[in-house]
Amino acid sequence: MGIKIKIAATAISILVISGCSNKSQPNEEMDHSTMNQEMEEMNHDMMEGHMSHDDVVSLNDSTGENELKIPVALERSNEEGVLYTVRAQKGKTEIFDGIETNTYGYNKSFLGPMLRLKKGETVKIRTINELNENTTFHWHGLEVSGEEDGGPHNILKPGEENVIEFKVTQEAATLWFHPHPEGKTAEQVYNGLAGLIYIEDENSKSLGLPNDYRKNDFPLIFQDKTFDDKKQLNYSATMNDDGTIGDTLLINGTLNPKLTVNKEKVRLRLLNGSNARDYTFKFNTGDSFLQIATDGGFLNEPVTLKEVTLTPSERAEIIVDFSQINTANDLALINEDGSVLLPFEVIDQSGVTSRVPKKLNDFSLTDKEMDLPVTKKVELFGMMDMVTINGKKFNPKRIDFTQKQGVTEVWEIYNRPDMMGGMIHPFHIHGTQFKILSRDGKEPPKNERGWKDSISIKPDEKVKIAIQFKHKGVYMFHCHILEHEDNGMMGQVKVE
């Protein structure tokens, strides 16, 4: 289901009078006619922005005519010390038959490869900017120093390159990477900059889960787009300050995809890579599945679900047993409104035998963590280009919080509703994985009792998290509706 917004026109005048309009200078006097004109313009803009989220456009059903493309597992470099080289580049991609669309990608024209890392190893990655604009390489969910995180301070200009080095200290997880330049993140992701990171460890190898990449272990990157009449991604024409929503779904960059599987247990790694759209994934048959992992690692035990909702940047790993699902009729993964996202073709072949153990991990919330006082409060508020955190817009020269390396603190994040009702904000913190302590004072649902780096927060909801940073540096925290991030809904924490 999409983001819900209630519209109350009375809020418009209050926002203007309080100085929220960005169309005039702070000390500039306005006569009544000018103010009325600005109010009318803002009213129109806000209605345009919010109506698209109050009644979110449905996605076109996948016809299933194209086999799903799976990102290439990038081969390790022969160069001494450097495991991977990742290039941000422009290109042309045949998304529609016979038509070339201008796109961005990593090491290819659209999207990017999968990088496989192992816990305990030291990794060097060379990043190269072959675009004609500034970019960064942000390692979303990876626990690295602030200098290597790839936030807006870590700009690479056109033609520049950099090598980062870090030791992998976190457990098995599905992470991703994308650009994070100030004010340009949304457009660069929309144009195609996104790639995957798989971390493996001894535990993940021993569990016996489906792990044959491209055969019974599939990443699914969900992104909605709007194409113009020439089948181009015209971001400036479709951009919405409250989050850009499209009518055409691409999974792994594939239009109208289907996935062919054997009658076996299959692992699907779901990533909401969209700018703003939420997805509630379920099967059209009503069959259940097992969720085994969150953003940053395995749950303690599999959770049986019939649907799972992910807001932008959230991940979930699920196991589907296609040997037990009735495939007599068309089988598909659908969205909450019934839109067909991914049809499946189940081949009458048994495939390999894998298992899902009852115990997957030893994640825990300690009594000490539960008893810690709240030391940092984050208030998310606003809409369109008037979004703020704790009443402020992002300033790269301002440090909003400080925290000691290796010390666990409790942050309280509150999504303050406005007079229009408010909207869901997916909240992300760089450079760490955190634990959800409570949602409005209650235990989080079972499928959120694992490591997280992004969390969906509803209007008027208050969430407490326990968070520790393993490394030093300056890290971003922000709304992962990418247009909100670009509009300044972001702060900085300095870890010392």
Automatic annotation (TrEMBL):
CDD domains (alphabetical): CuRO_1_CueO_FtsP, CuRO_2_CueO_FtsP, CuRO_3_CueO_FtsP
Domain Plastocyanin-like: 89-203, 229-326, 370-496
Alphabetical keyword list: Metal-binding, Oxidoreductase
Keyword Hydrolase found: no
Entry-linked InterPro entries: Cu-oxidase-like_N, Cu-oxidase_2nd, Cu-oxidase_C, Cu-oxidase_fam, Cu_oxidase_Cu_BS, Cupredoxin
One Pfam family from the record: Cu-oxidase
Keyword Metal-binding attached: yes
UniProt xrefs under Gene3D superfamilies: Cupredoxins - blue copper proteins (2.60.40.420)
Superkingdom per UniProt: Bacteria
Family annotation (PANTHER family): BILIRUBIN OXIDASE, CUPREDOXIN SUPERFAMILY PROTEIN
Family the entry assigns: Belongs to the multicopper oxidase family.
Name listed for the protein in its UniProt record: Multicopper oxidase domain-containing protein
Organism (species): Bacillus lumedeiriae
